Each structure stands twice: as C-alpha cells, then as structure tokens.
Amino acid sequence: MDASEARVLEIGDLSYIKEAFPDRTTLLWTGRRPPWYWVNRTPSVLIDRADYSDCTPANFVRGLRDAAAGRYDVIVAYLPLYSPWHPRNGLRSLAGDPLHPWSSLTRVLGIAWLRLIKPPVPLVVVDLNDYLGIRRPSIFLLDKADVVFKRELPADRWQVLAGTAHPALPTLRIRSDRRWQRRLEKMRPISLPAPRVDIPSLAGGSFPEKTADIFFSGNTTTNSWVRRTGIVALKELAARGIKVDIPDRTLPRNDFYRRMSQAWLAWSPAGFGWDCYRTGEAAQCLTVPVVNHPTVERHRPLLQGQHLIQYDVEGDGLARAVQSALADKERLKQMAFAARDHVNEHLTLRAMARHIIETGLSFRKSK
After folding, report:
1. Engineering a disulfide at 54: which of 13, 103, 118, 352 sits with its beta carbon 3.0 to 4.6 angstroms away?
2. CATH architecture under which domain 3-193+349-366 falls
3. Structure pTM?
4. Rounded to whole angstroms, how far apart are CA atoms 259 and 216?
5. Which residues are 10's β-sheet partners?
6. Number of neighbouring beta carbons within 10 Å of residue 212
7. pLDDT, tens digit, for every residue of 231-249?
8. Tell me: the pLDDT tens digits for 158-182?
9. 228 phi/psi in degrees, rounded to 5
10. Which CATH class is domain 200-346?
C-alpha cells in the first residue's frame, strides 16, 4: 500500500500527517491549545475546527474501535514532553480553550490512554522535541509502539534514559537488560520537516545573485553555547573582510528567505536541539548550510562536502570552514543545487509523513 492510500489515525499535539495527507487522516488533538492557535510555524495546511477532533475519552475509544474494525491502517502518536497530568497541561489547556472545558481538560490525557490498550494496527510513535531524553511517564510507549522515531536521537541511544530510567548514565546492568535493548532497537532517527520556501526571486530555479558571503539571523545570547561562541567568530570574519549579513532585528519570513538566498553560505548552528529548520530552508534558498558536526543520528542527512559544510566547534573551526568554502564559489553553486534537490525529495513535510506511514505499514503483517 502506498502512503497516500493509507488511512491514518493521528493522535497528539502536532498535525504533520493531517497536513500532508488531509483526506486520509483523522486527527485527535491532545495539545494544550487548539491546532489553529499556533503561530510560531507556518503549516502547509491550516487545521480548521472541522478538520480535527479533541482527544476526549469518547473520541479516543471511537478511534480505536474504528482501527480494530479495519478503518485505519496505521496509528501515529506524538510523544509528549511532559506527563499528561502535569499542571501546565490541564490548566494551560483550559486557558487556551475556555469555551470547551471538558475537552480542554481531557484531551491532554490522550497519549496516556494508549497505556490501557493493545493497538489493533501498527503504532508509530514520533518524538520531535528538542529534548535528548525520554521522560519516565512516556517510557511505556517504547513497549506499545512498533517503531519510535526520535528527532534528537543521541549517537549512544542509551543516553535517552539518562535522568529517567537511571539517575545518571545508564549502567551495564541496564545495558545488558534484553527488555531495554528491545526498546531501543525500535528507535529510528527522523528529521524536522523543512518548511516550504516560496519566494519570487527563486521562481524558475535560477541561481540567485549573491551579495553576501554568509548569512545568519537568530537568537545567540540565550540559546545554545555553539551559537554564543560562533557569533563571535562570524564578527571576527567580518572584520577580516568577509561579507557577513547579520540582521539587527527579526525579519519577516519572506525577507528572511530573500536575504538568506543572497548569501553563498548560511550559518545553521545547533539550537536547543542539533536539528534545525534553518538547514532545510537554506537549501531551498540555494544557499549552502554551515553546521557544527552532528551530535545525533540523522535521517536522510545532507552530507558534508556534497550538500553542506560541517565544522569543528573548537578553536577557529567555524572561521576555517567558512574561508575554505568561499575559496571555490563554483563548487558552492553545485552544492546548493544538490542540497535543494535532496531536501525537496527527502526532507519536506510530505516526504517525512510518507516515510513515517510506510514504516508503520511494514509492521502490518505482525498484527
């Protein structure tokens, strides 16, 4: 079965499958605020009130009954960052949607109800949080799920249990436990879906005129230490004659894309997590991303020297990488086109949704 033909029951506080395949997906919402409330990202499809249901007890039971009756092929559930009974969930949910108090207070419990059932169809759990670990209230999902996609999946997967299943780093006792081994074997890396870049200057696929060497716009003072130290390196490069474009204010989205497209390179350092929307956006702007070396497993990654530039965070690693890259503009142009094509094929929202669904479908025979 092709992913676009699969019928999906989506449960959680994100709506990526619904956005990618709206006609084949039923969305049961568990977020503190309604899905149309969020304004910090631009979805490809606006989720109206008629396009989703709150994950109340009745709607949850109905959805699982429909799955058992063969009306869904896959269940996709998003791993929550906080426990469902955390005060910030119930109280903030009620404050965000006070006209529907019952659904506001109960929908945030929706993921926890999966503890009580045996999924009748493959269950795919997706964790797109910045957090490297998995909190104790969500560990049961490692048993319930057929596969778990995690955006910030440490190179040593055992580290997802630090501070939860173990107060520090998991010991040999835990690492030799076959039950824990099976849980971690279910995990797969997943990337953030690249937001769609649509600006007139890139229409037709022509290579944009470059007026800057490297571009960056973002928070550096209260974000990751990689940004705090890297911004100093960029300013030192500017003092050496490198054309560095660092806006002094937050740019509207289209201005952000336009300015980025006018630079040969875009600095895309780790933020709260290593994976970053900016990397995929830069590629679509035909600007080569410059990223610090990855700290996590990656899905369909942009590759060093082929699609992007990686650098060492120690010493003058960023400056050396930028200067070396700028020495060959023709190579950067080739890399920019290769990166754009790779992102459009593998790292868009629809491509990510398709990968999640197809992986889930591969477990149907075991059900």
Report:
1. 103
2. 3-Layer(aba) Sandwich (3.40)
3. 0.92
4. 9
5. 27, 76
6. 18
7. 999 999 999 999 999 999 9
8. 999 998 888 899 999 999 999 999 9
9. -60, -40
10. alpha beta
